[in-house]
Design a protein that fits this description.
single chain, 170 residues, mainly alpha
Length: 170
């Protein structure tokens, strides 16, 4: 019996920044436009990209008669190719984004359930160990700040409460 050597699976590529992912995909990482900039963009008509090659052929034939020197057939074909590539990437990245997003939501749900369970347990055992709530004050205060009505005393969240990305404020 010969045993073949086990081949380790390739290491996963970890993209730790949007810049690294954009570079790997060969796309430009552009800042998000301001709302007024988005409003000024022309709305794409459904199916326009499929027409670009046909329009390029017409332009090659009738371009001189139209007198449009700044529009050329090769430019239209290049736009169509770029559109198809960006659209394909958009579809794949949207699927990945949604998958990651929903995985994180499920993790949030699980973690919050555990924190709520711990709060209930600390409160239920407080009579047996009166120091327990003091030791667990950070969790009790944090969770209490987000209960309906907020914490007594008017503070919306304890100082240093983590943000949605898990980082502490202070």
């Amino acid at each position: 019996m010969s045993s073949s050597p086990k081949v380790a699976p390739p290491a996963a590529i970890a993209f730790t920044s949007a810049e690294a992912l954009a570079a790997a995909l060969g796309v430009e990482l552009c800042p998000s436009p301001k709302p007024n900039e988005v409003r000024r963009l022309r709305m794409a008509l459904p199916g326009y990209a499929a027409l670009l090659d046909d329009i390029a052929e017409l332009l090659a034939r009738d371009g001189e008669a139209l007198g449009v020197r700044d529009v050329d057939p090769d430019g239209l074909i290049a736009m169509q190719r770029r559109y198809r590539r960006l659209r394909a990437l958009e579809v794949v990245l949207e699927a990945v984004y949604l998958s990651v997003y929903y995985q994180r939501l499920r993790l949030d749900d699980e973690a919050m359930g555990l924190l709520q369970r711990l709060v209930r347990r600390v409160r239920s055992r407080a009579e047996e160990d009166p120091e327990l709530p003091r030791r667990w004050r950070v969790l009790l205060d944090f969770m209490g700040a987000f209960r309906k009505g907020g914490r007594p005393g008017g503070s919306a969240a304890p100082s240093g409460a983590p943000s949605s990305d898990g980082e502490g404020l202070g």
